[in-house]
Amino acid sequence: MNTQTRGLRRHPDVDPEVVSYRDLAMLLYKERRDRDLELPEARDFWSDPAWDMLLDLFIATEEGRVVNVTSACIGACVPSTTGLRWIGQLSKARLVWRGVDPFDARKGTLGLTKNAVASMKRYLDRVGAARGYRKADGSF
């Protein structure tokens, strides 16, 4: 792939020289939201709440945060009932864990399992390499 072709695949908001897993996940999430903004009439054609939740939870993991259930649904741009259904599926697949907020027992929390984090990083390695990015250590 030549530089010109690779340049077309890079996002202008991301420094092509050095990116992190968090940067790549945020880029993928932002691209999905941008697509929704530009083609709102087609949004239902590519709705993928599970993927949006995985990206959101991965970003939170990289930032050392835990996400509450309501925020996960909002982040996936779906109603709570749809979000809860997908959270159940992700939990059954052992991609997410569910917990209780230590400060408010009424709130549920979510996070990615260790295996899910490792899988997301492998996927983001491929995305980073395909788009011509590199991490600070020179990999991707």
The average pLDDT score comes to 84
Using the 3D structure, state the CATH architecture.
Orthogonal Bundle
**Sheet with the most strands, sense and barrel status:** 3 strands, antiparallel
The fourth-level CATH homologous superfamily is Winged helix-like DNA-binding domain superfamily/Winged helix DNA-binding domain
CATH topology: Arc Repressor Mutant, subunit A
Identify the CATH class: Mainly Alpha
| Helical residues, percent | 40-55%
Please work out how many helical segments DSSP would assign. Answer: 6
Gyration radius, in Å: 16 Å
Distance between the termini: 15 Å
Biggest sheet strand line-up: 1-3-2
Low-confidence stretches: 1-9
Write the H/E string, N to C: HHHEHHEEH
Give the helix/strand class: mainly alpha
Described by the principal axes of the CA atoms, the overall outline is: globular
The number of distinct structural domains comes to 1
Write a brief caption for the model.
It contains 6 helices and 3 strands, in the order αααβααββα. It is mainly α and 140 residues long. β2 and β3 form a beta hairpin.
Please describe what this structure looks like.
This protein has a 3-stranded antiparallel sheet. 54% of the residues lie in helices and 9% in strands. It has helices at residues 3-9, 21-38, 49-62, 69-75, 80-92, 114-130, and strands at 67-68, 96-100, 108-112. The longest helix is centred in the first third of the chain and has 18 residues, at 21-38. It has one domain: Winged helix-like DNA-binding domain superfamily/Winged helix DNA-binding domain (Arc Repressor Mutant, subunit A). It contains 6 helices and 3 strands. Residues 1-9 have low confidence and may be disordered. With 140 residues, it is mostly helical.
